[in-house]
Design brief:
The complex is a heterodimer of chains A (233) and B (293). Chain A has helices at 2-7, 9-30, 105-112, 116-120, 166-179, 182-189, 213-224; strands at residues 51-58, 61-62, 66-68, 71-77, 85-94, 127-130, 136-138, 144-151, 199-208. With 233 residues, chain A is α+β, with helices and mostly antiparallel strands. Chain A is elongated and about 90 Å long. The termini of chain A are far apart. Chain B is mostly helical and 293 residues long. Chain B is 73% helix and 4% strand. Chain B contains eleven helices and three strands, in the order H-H-H-H-H-H-H-E-E-E-H-H-H-H. In chain B, a hairpin with a 2-residue loop joins strand 1 and strand 2. In chain B, helix 2 (10-37) runs antiparallel to helix 3 (40-62) and helix 2 (10-37) packs parallel to helix 4. The longest helix of chain B is centred in the last third of the chain and has 31 residues, at 212-242. Mean pLDDT of chain B is 88; it is low at 1-10. Classes of the chains: A alpha+beta (233), B mainly alpha (293). Chains A and B meet through helix 1, helix 2 and helix 6 of A and helix 2, helix 4 and helix 10 of B.
Chain lengths: 233, 293
């Protein structure tokens, strides 16, 4: 009979778990924005030979599948009075891998978060994009040419005009895992520590399409790539 | 269920209903967690693991090996483990490899909450089915993707050549006249093949064939079916990419990622289940005809 006494707690313990599981699941399903990205976009962008100005800031936006940090936008005026370029720097974290071969940043964003174009104030109807995986994607009209890249936390994987991002991205991820201490690996695996592999700083540089727009965008990217993250972070 | 009802009476029957309720809630919670935070493949792997645990537990019930009566220590351990699973499920918001451990941890917690410590080992098959989820995730991480990508690209090239499509292969890259595709990551078919192997293992534990070689053969056939169907998927993707279709990007993405892309692993699963069922049925028929003789 003594053993029956503690068995009285059995239904109570199970009932607590049932109520807890239902409550936590409901809360998670209704309100579950991803944590903010840790990367920070540069607040100023100084490019040698170009005049730059800050043209806008968008507050962070949390969403279930994509979290966009403080987005900064700049206008770049070329020295010879040519076409003005727009630079958009948006730190972002996704729920899982988003740098898919053949999928542009803006497309990947749109897949996960249909309001992304609105948040980043992009015109997706009329564009040519130089993909971070190499190759050029064009849409009907092609009134805007855009270079897209996404800078990973270590900075080693990014758009390179001469080749694909895939090998450098894979190398960086392998190194990230092979060099991390066991404790970090375990805590990342169990989700206790935020995994930086789902994070990058999206860099979108665009200007009206003209004969030399791709070369100009690549030139701006080459000058900007080491100046787009906040060094204080 | 009938055998359970004969073993528990009064207040403990009420507790047994609660235990089943808890098991169902943990199952739903885990599937919801996977749907909200992990990939489609992870969700399906988890679903398979729970399905396997369920049918193996059902056979334990039919064999009369299901008596709910936890020990005091087990009850405490089980409660803590399930509370840990719930807290982890709540806190994890991005894809994490360790998330695949949660169904197994939940299963162990439920076993502690339901059975005396000595009896838990009689339900090892259900726990083994739940262990297939982290095992699959581990294998996906360690299997050599470039090797599988190379094989898949080779198989797809043969398929395309059979359909008179001009195609050249450079390792895992297929060049068609209208465009090229690179086989990488999930497109190697590794997740789909491992899911089929998991199903084969579950069926082997729940409904084993008459001879060991038959079980071994089905374990070999499972990944081959997955590999072949994935090769067809890659051939379709390569053809779409090289085509002049108006919305080819949308079609490509539809078959490449997301729920619709799971149509192909689903077809592979149906083919494998049909093979298993037909072979099992022929053995049963053969056995019955032997009795009649």
């Amino acid at each position: 009979m003594r053993t029956d006494n503690w068995l009285k707690a059995w239904p109570v313990l199970m009932a607590i778990l049932i109520v807890g599981a239902i409550a936590l699941s409901t809360y998670k399903a209704l309100r579950r924005p991803l944590p903010k990205p840790q990367m920070v976009a540069a607040s100023q962008l100084h490019l040698p030979g170009y005049k730059t100005e800050v043209s806008g800031i968008n507050p962070p936006k949390g969403h279930a599948d994509v979290s966009i940090g403080l987005t900064r936008r700049f206008k770049i005026y070329p020295p010879d009075g040519g076409a003005i370029s727009r630079v958009i720097l948006a730190p972002m974290r996704m729920r899982e891998k988003f740098l898919l071969p053949g999928l542009r940043i803006t497309e990947a964003l749109h897949e996960q978060y249909p309001h992304a174009h609105q948040v980043l104030q992009l015109d997706a109807r009329n564009e040519i994009a130089i993909s971070h995986y190499g190759g050029t994607h064009s849409r009907k009209g092609g009134g805007i040419t855009r270079l897209e890249s996404c800078l990973t936390p270590s900075g080693s994987a990014r758009f390179a005009p001469s080749g694909s991002l895939a090998p450098s991205l894979q190398k960086e991820r392998n190194e990230e895992w092979s060099k991390a201490p066991l404790q970090t690996l375990l805590s990342r695996s169990l989700g206790s520590e935020i995994n930086s592999r789902w994070e990058c700083l999206a860099v979108l540089i665009e200007q009206p399409t003209h004969r030399d727009s791709q070369d100009e965008l690549i030139k701006i990217w080459t000058l900007a790539r080491d100046r787009i993250t906040d060094s204080a972070h | 269920v009938r055998s359970l009802s004969t073993q528990v009476t009064g207040r403990s029957l009420h507790a047994s209903q609660l235990w089943w309720g808890l098991a169902i809630v943990m199952l739903c919670q885990n599937l919801l967690f996977n749907a909200l935070t992990q990939s489609v493949e992870d969700l399906l792997t988890s679903l398979l693991a729970w399905w396997g645990a369920g049918i193996l537990l059902q056979s334990d019930i039919e064999d009369g090996r299901f008596i709910l009566h936890p020990s005091r220590v087990g009850m405490c351990l089980g409660w803590m483990l399930l509370a840990w699973v719930l807290s982890r499920s709540y806190l994890i918001s991005t894809r994490a490899p360790g998330a695949s451990l949660l169904p197994l941890m939940a299963g162990i917690g439920l076993a502690f909450m339901g059975f005396p410590l000595r009896q838990i080992r009689t339900h090892w098959r259900s726990l083994a089915a739940l262990a297939l989820a982290p095992l699959t995730r581990l294998l996906i991480a360690i299997l050599p993707v470039p090797v599988f990508a190379h094989w898949t690209a080779g198989f797809t090239q043969v398929l395309l050549l059979l359909f008179d499509t001009s195609v050249e292969r450079q390792n895992a890259i297929l060049h068609l006249p209208g465009g090229s595709v690179m086989v990488d990551g999930g497109c190697t078919g590794i997740p789909a093949m491992l899911q089929l192997v998991s199903v084969a293992l579950i069926l082997f534990m729940a409904f084993p064939m008459r001879h060991r070689w038959q079980n071994a053969l089905m374990l070999l056939v499972a990944p081959l079916v997955g590999f072949a169907i994935n090769g067809i998927r890659i051939a379709i993707l390569a053809s779409i990419n090289a085509s002049q279709l108006a919305n080819k990007d949308s079609w490509f993405q539809l078959i490449h990622v997301g729920w619709f892309s799971q149509l192909f692993p689903a077809i592979a699963m149906l083919i494998f289940l049909k093979l298993y069922y037909d072979w099992m049925e022929s053995q049963v028929r053969h056995l019955h005809s032997g009795y009649e003789d």
